[in-house]
Amino acid sequence: MKIELPSLFTFAADTEAAHAVPMGITLLFCVVLVGLIACLALEEKIHAKKSVIAGFFAVLSLVLGAFLLDLPFGKITLPNGHHLELPVFIPAIEWNVITIILGSSIFVDVTSKSGLFTWIAIKLTKLSKGDPLILLVLYSVMTVVFSAVLNNVTAMIIVGSLSAVSLNKLGRNDKLLAFLLIEGLLTNVGGLLTLISSVPNIIVGTTAGISFVSFFVKAVGYVVLATVLTVFMGAKFFKIGRLRTFEEKQQAAAQVAGFDENDGIESKGFFWFGAVMLLLFIGMIAGASAPGWPIADLGMGFVAMAFGVLMLIRFKASPNRFYSAIDWDLLFFFVFLFVTIYMMEHAMVLDLIGKGVKPIIGLGDKTGAGVMLATSAVASSVTDNIPLAAMLAKIMVVDPTVVPNPDTGNPDSPFWWSVIFGANLGGNLTPIGSASTLVAVTIMHKHDLKMSFVGFVKAALPFAIAQIVLAVIYVLLVIPLLS
Q: Tens of pLDDT along 64-113?
């Protein structure tokens, strides 16, 4: 028998029914949320790590919640009659996300010791013949594909590592920040490719009754267009161009020819073991998202942790060096952020956001869908897109304008696609809008590249606006033709 523990999704769906929170308390928690966002924006000025900032607001939210809200304190009864006591904030944390980041980080770090990533990086570098623009295109395509079949966090960790190796080999470390930023933005574009590429896709797509094939057919055109647009803009903004003169091409070709992809491969056996494990890792991560497969119940986080442990067995006597390389600040930031968002749900802050979108639905399929996409993008840039997608899906499924008959659904309504596109692309507006953009910023800091909260917003805003405008046009004009 499966034990159903409370989850973020459950509380997001049941908040309105379970609580009657006075508006004054809801507005108080709105102030707390705004305070969190403001402090993260001023992170460098207040000289505090993200985890410390998020931790403070998580503690503040819990204390306020204990006095002002009806939180679900209590015991969980197991099938054998025993009681399991969990602190109220434990179910708030999306452990699947935490374990994906932790497991993927360990897996990538250990696998890199086999020389596999260096080998891939040098192969791609050779294919580009040392041309920075071609290398950007190759890495961008790889980012989108990895984000679609894995998840955007794992994709960013892998591709970010490869970018650092390749550009270092070419002596173009000055372009690393541009590569990481573009790749971080493209992880959320790649997350739109299939029904199982991101959690908002799964929540909204299954609620709307959109099939896997239908989702892919309708989304692939946008993913291709947005990828081309993002790479084009990135190349222009960061001045990443083709090698023009014969001397430059000859010098780059000679430089690339001197690269040896076998550098860093200390053991052929470990190299091939790493290669096989990487392929299995990709396959298992993709399979963990497929409904009906037993391992799907364990989740992608379990797969990431399992493969991390399998790779650690190779260094079973000395795993400490890999543990010390884990970004604990990033992990604890997410832990505390999930707790804060959980409290926002109980304080009906997300419900307040949901009520605000009802008039938008009344604007009609064209205007309403466009405004919905932009609104959900802005909302998901400052809060977690998972509970937001769950709340919006709940609101729309009971609205006769979107779903005339709840028993049969209405997968062709543009409002579903507005939420899907908005929830994914909103993550590109701020570094806390999605896990992958935050990972991208973390990799920048790891390589001593300065990128503050405000700096990220300034750099990413033109890309995000262009992607969202393209998404509005695509949802309103192209998707109806494919329905």
A: 998 998 877 666 666 666 776 777 778 778 787 788 878 888 888 888 88
Q: How many structural domains are present in the chain?
A: 1
* Encoded amino acid at 164, one letter: A
Domain that holds residue 268: 95-186+223-230+243-323
Q: What does the pLDDT look like over 166-207, one tens digit per residue?
A: 888 788 888 999 999 999 999 999 989 987 677 788 778 877
More confident residue, 156 or 359: 156
DSSP state, 83?
Answer: E
- Please state, as a whole number, how many other Cβ atoms lie within 10 Å of the Cβ of residue 290: 12
DSSP code for 478: I
Tokens 């590249």 found at = 449
Rounded distance, CA 121 to CA 162, Å? Answer: 5
| Separation of CA 132 from chain center | 26
DSSP class of residue 326 equals S
Find out whether 295 and 287 touch, Cβ atoms under 8 Å. Answer: yes
Residue position matching structure tokens 């009657």: 20
DSSP designation for 139: H
Please answer whether residues 281 and 104 qualify as being in contact, where contact means their C-beta atoms are separated by less than 8 angstroms.
Answer: no
Q: Taking the model in full, what pTM does it have?
A: 0.72
SS3 assignment, position 293: coil
Would 75 be classed as within a structural domain?
no
Contact (CB, 8 A) for 418 and 372: yes
Go through 351-370 and write b for each residue having 16 or more CB atoms within 10 A of its CB, e for each that does not.
bbbbeebeebbeeebeebbb
Domain contains 41: no
What is the rounded CA–CA span in Å between residue 407 and residue 275? 47
Residue 37 resides in a domain: no
Mean per-residue pLDDT of the chain: 82
> Does 182 reside within a domain?
yes
User: What was the pLDDT predicted at 182?
Assistant: 96
